TrEMBL record:
Pfam families: PAP2. It comes from Amnibacterium kyonggiense. Residues 63-165 form the Phosphatidic acid phosphatase type 2/haloperoxidase domain. InterPro entries: PAP2/HPO, PAP2/HPO_sf. This is Undecaprenyl-diphosphatase. The chain crosses the membrane at residues 30-55, 61-85, 106-138, 150-172. Keywords: Membrane, Transmembrane, Transmembrane helix.
Amino acid sequence: MFRVVSPSPGPVDVWWNALMTATTSPFGHAAAATLAVLGTGLPGAAVAVVVGVLIGVLRGWAWGAFVIVASVVSALDVSGMKLLAHRARPDSTFGLFNAFPSGHTANAALLGTVVLLLTRSVVVRVLAVIWIVAMAWSRTALHAHWLSDVLAAVMAGVATAVLLFALSWSLVHANRRGSRGHVQSGLQ
């Protein structure tokens, strides 16, 4: 079967995994476990819905719906990549395969990037970046993923968000063109 990712971790992956083992603390483990819960299943979907509702209130319901749709597309992207990669996890208690890329991290990167694109608040933007970094860290701290898994997931989440945002932006502005072909100002 065709594989796009080496099933074996690289030297940086092994080094990072050892660093995560050496720096483990009860507080760090609890924080990572909490983020793991918030990034999957119903809690993960709830986070996406909350971000969608907040974006909807602040920027218009079309952009709120965009957040939800983008989260679903991201999940489908990640599922397809996991099938192609079929990569073993550092700790088999999380399952034997499907480590590459991290779905938790890809969704965090997608949501964080959407927030970066649709908000102007520096505080909110900093919190979005912290969310992405914290989720990526948590996946490696729990040994659910290799460092390369989470780095690829960040790239996948950002790329999905930017591509879907560009498509949505062009559709929003195509619908706002006046009779003379001018784009009306303002993002809703």
